[in-house]
Amino acid sequence: MHVALICIDKPGQLELRKAKREAHLAYIEASGVVEMAGPFLSPSGEMVGSLVILDVARLSDGEDWAEADPYAMAGLFESVEIREWKKVIG
């Protein structure tokens, strides 16, 4: 199943995001379940959130992945929405 994580950063946390980015990317690589991912951008082009698409067996696996993400563990996100997602195109 595919799971979409829609994560919005707390305001003013760009430096925290940058500080944890390497660990976040390493976590993505090591987990082996990320199908695609990338940051949301502000109108000025700064990173302000994340969209991550996971390929996991259960929704709870996506929830577990999200909780262990270095960004989440550092308290970067103001909100995290986790939803089952159906790939149709691409």
Present the secondary structure layout:
Blueprint lengths: L1 E8 L4 H18 L2 E8 L5 E9 L3 H10 L1 H4 L3 E9 L5
Antiparallel strand pairs: 1-3, 1-4, 2-3
**CATH architectural arrangement:** 2-Layer Sandwich
Oligomer: single chain
Q: Given the C-alpha coordinates, what overall shape results?
A: globular
CATH class: Alpha Beta
Instruction: Please give the count of helices.
Output: 3
> Strand sequence of the main sheet, in spatial order?
2-3-1-4
Return the average pLDDT rounded to an integer.
97
CATH topology: the name is: Alpha-Beta Plaits
Which runs of at least 5 residues are low in confidence (pLDDT < 50)?
none
Count all strands and give the number. Answer: 4
Secondary-structure element order, N to C: EHEEHHE
What is the H level of CATH, i.e. the homologous superfamily? Dimeric alpha+beta barrel
Helix share, percent:
25-40%
Major beta sheet summary: 4 strands, antiparallel
Strand content: 35-45%
Quickly count the domains: 1
How far from one another are the termini? Answer: 16 Å
Question: What does it look like?
Answer:
There is one protein chain. This protein has helices spanning 14-31, 59-68, 70-73; strands spanning 2-9, 34-41, 47-55, 77-85. Strands 2-3-1-4 form a four-stranded antiparallel sheet, covered by helices on one side. The model has no long low-confidence stretch (mean pLDDT 97). Helix content is 36%, strand content 38%. The chain has one domain (2-85): Alpha-Beta Plaits (2-Layer Sandwich). It is globular, with a radius of gyration of 13 Å. By secondary structure, the chain is of the alpha+beta class.
